[in-house]
Amino acid sequence: MKKINESYIEVKKSKFIGLLYEISSNEEVESIINELSLEHKKAKHIVYAYKLGNYEKNYSDKEPSGTTRGLLELIHHKNMDNTLIVIVRYFGGTLLGSGPLTRTYTKCASMLFIK
Question: Does residue 28 carry a pLDDT above 90?
């Protein structure tokens, strides 16, 4: 596993930490997610998407359906493979709604590709 980049955005007191990894196996993804869960125990959600060869997965960690689809779409748009995008969310007390939440996750993930 190799962490490539990090991003950060705050919206209505919710904090979003984006992480971009180069990966080589499903086990590596599990290991990264477990490690982040321990590191960010107070985070409300840890969402992610990854593509590994022909296999891809999108996980929304109890967020509204579809709010994290932009993560996988971004991986496709950038023609990435062996790539994991993780967004750690600390809830700030205000519900954002599906549209703004989707845009925030996608924006945080997009920031990972800006050098």
Answer: yes
